[in-house]
Amino acid sequence: MNYPVKKISGLLMKKIMAIILLLAVALVYAACASSGKTTSVAPAANYSENQADVYAEAPKAAPYPDSGSGLGQNIAFQEQVAGENIMSQRKIIMNGNVSIETLDFDESVNAMDQLIKDFGGFAESRNIKGKSMSSKALRSAYYVIRVPAEKFETVLKSMGNIGTVIESSSEGTDITDQYYDTETRIKALKVQEETLLDIMAKATKLEDVITLEKRIAEVRYEIESLENKIKNYDRLIAFSRITVHINEVTDKTETKPEPVTLSERASRSFAQSIENFRIGLENFIVWLLYSWINIILSLIFVWIVIIIVKKINKKTKRLPTNVSQQKEVSVNAEDKTKDK
């Protein structure tokens, strides 16, 4: 009876020891795993603490395109940047020409002066011609203005606020080559000046010193001339030139598009003919009122001439009758003498 009990208790002890051993292995494994997690998470936490502020404000990156389209976009972007850099280095002098008609000349002139001030420009030349008593021409104004180059196109578009723009043109003169050639020449002359100064400092003969001073003066004069040329280029580039002609008119020029259909052309031609007849009639009435004294004097002169001509004609008609009567009297007198 005791043998089986001892056997059972031995088996139980083995199972308990096995369970304890398994628990010990599990605890060791858990401890190793927890230590591995701690070492791997620590750098991530450190990264987030140091870099969070830097990348928090950074914009989100666009989704990366596939390799083919990405390469094409990159090349296009590089070409665009290169083109912008080239254009920014170009030296171009812009000139414009504008012709304007206006019904209110004084208002247009005032608007032109105000436009120049608003855009930070100045009038290089300003000439206004008025109407004289002996002239039928209306008033006109001629401007040559300078405006900042970056506002050149805006000023041209604003000319419509002054009057009816009849013609507008612009052109640019590229002086890039001349500009940079002049700068290169200045640099070369300055190097030459420094070399001449070093040689003169080492010269011992008076003749050499005089010759070097003369040459240095020539180089400095050429440098100053070229620097003034560069400054003039800069002024011409910075302020574009616009020539403006303002002409006073009595009838506004239509800037509507030309009609296309036959009915539109016919209606417009009929309206234009009526308008031309009205303008002609008004001009005739104005001329008649302006020249009425000359007309009356001319009529009086013509009337006097007609009267004189009539009197002369009457005298010429009576002269033949008198001659014939005198002949008859002479013939009768001869007949009487013969009878006696």
Quick structural gist:
By secondary structure, the chain is an alpha+beta fold. It has helices at 2-56, 67-89, 105-118, 152-158, 176-202, 206-238, 262-290, 292-339; strands at residues 92-102, 122-129, 140-148, 164-174, 239-248. It has a five-stranded mixed beta sheet.
Describe the protein.
The protein has 340 residues and is an alpha+beta fold. Among the domains are: 91-173, Alpha-Beta Plaits (2-Layer Sandwich), CATH 3.30.70.260; 177-238. The protein is 69% helix and 14% strand. The chain has a five-stranded mixed β-sheet. α5 runs antiparallel to α6 (206-238).
Per CATH, the superfamily of the domain at 91-173 is ACT domain
Distance between the termini: 236 Å
Strand numbers in spatial order across the main sheet: 2-3-5-1-4
List SSEs in N-to-C order.
HHEHEEHEHHEHH
* Total count of strands: 5
- CATH-assigned fold name of the domain at 91-173: Alpha-Beta Plaits
Largest sheet composition: 5 strands, mixed
Give the integer mean of the pLDDT values: 77
- Low-confidence residue ranges: 33-68
Beta-strand level of the residues, as a percent range? 5-15%
Backbone shape: elongated
- Give the helix tally: 8
Main attributes?
340 residues; Alpha-Beta Plaits; five-stranded mixed beta sheet; 14% strand
